[in-house]
Amino acid sequence: MMAESLDDKIREIAKSDINNSPKPGFFSSLRNKLLVGAAVVGLSVGGLLYLVTSTDGFVPDIRTNLDTLLKKTELSDSVFEKPVYKPSFDSIINKPVDNILRTDNQPKNKPYFSDNLEEEVIEYENTNNISISNVKNHKLGEATKWYKKGGEFFDYENYDAAINAYDRALELDPENAEIWDYKGFAFEMLNRYDDALSSYDNSLRIDSKKVYTWERKGEVLEKLERPYDALAAYDKSLSLDLQNTSAMVRKAFLLKKMNRLDDALKVYDDALELDPKNASVWHYKGSFLNVLDRYDDALIAIDKSLELDPENLSVLIEKSYVLNNLNRLDDAVRVYDDALKLDPENADVWRYKGRFLMTLDCYEEALNAYDKALRLNPDNEFLWIEKGEVLDELKLYNVALESFEQALKIDPKYNFIWYKKGEVLEKLNRFDEALSAYNKSLELDSEFYSAKKSKEDLLKKMSNKR
What we know:
Layout lengths: L5 H9 L23 H5 L15 H16 L43 H12 L14 H13 L3 H14 L4 H13 L3 H14 L4 H13 L3 H14 L4 H13 L3 H14 L4 H13 L3 H14 L4 H13 L3 H14 L4 H13 L3 H14 L4 H13 L3 H14 L4 H13 L3 H14 L4 H17 L1
Helix pairs in contact: 5-6, 5-7, 6-7, 7-8, 8-9, 9-10, 9-11, 10-11, 11-12, 11-13, 12-13, 13-14, 14-15, 15-16, 16-17, 17-18, 18-19, 19-20, 20-21, 21-22, 21-23, 22-23
């Protein structure tokens, strides 16, 4: 991983979209977050651009923004109940939108690594039966090794340890802008935005032409509630690369938050004036217009994007959302069929189709779509959860219970699954088991309101029966 520069890594991420998404596993963690707005750039399935509307950025508010998206498109929000986990660099490449919300390798109880770093790494490797790197036979005194070590700690979500390692590297090579960049992002993952800003400033002091470092600086300034400074940083990034679509999207949504809607749209119009055949910019403009409830204009922009890039699945899915907002439901369903003609083995498209059919109360058809998705990707707990919800709507409670059990086999620590299991058990009049499931959900998340309320109601029901 560390052989690539941060700019190269971000550019690679920014190019990803649903067309080349592998088997889930995004967003590791987005309810998972992206490096430099890559989710927005490459994965704006179904209005993903909502992700950047929060003043706090992706990680703290991604649930809220996605819930807003789901309300807008009238989709089930069950999948978005999962707690936020933060991503590794490598794990956020080429992943479909909903895997922004999860990780195949959930964070474990990893220790904080202190000054006795090398000894603690060896102990950690022995304890966990893994090898982060060969630290037993090599001294870690060289900057490049500490730099690589920092990246490895980052991938294991030990951000304090990563910062410790980057500091060791910077002691030896203080003018290495790339190390400052990675250190800055590690600070971001800990919500230490002032420290992140300081790291990015050090990087830009060394190399003031780092396009994506200016963009990261802009996002941090947004989180620090310095919108005008953030705009200046985004403008600097765009002045260095006019086709930096992630900075373009961020700037547009920041202007929207500042209620400067005409200026926000002008960001896209200026880019299209320079390059009217840029399918991505037409896509993002359409997504933005959809956010503004300008559905007819959004559809024109989306269709223009598809005219230039007709096989882009992510744009096709976006179009389905716009058509849904226009209440052109039959046309929206046909868009999913068009997408599946292009890639009939794409589990994510089958999933989106199933979810959309649920909004139309077409539960049998939705169940068929989820079965197709699960045949292609049986290890995705979200597919099992959503299938269980369809079966619940069909009042097939025993089969729904089996689906939730399958989801728990994949992720037994996901509190929402325990809650859904409890709901179905309650409908089956298996009250003691339902109570146990609600308790398990609350054990994993004591503030989960739905589980609290269901438990209270169940206890009243059980009390009345005695």
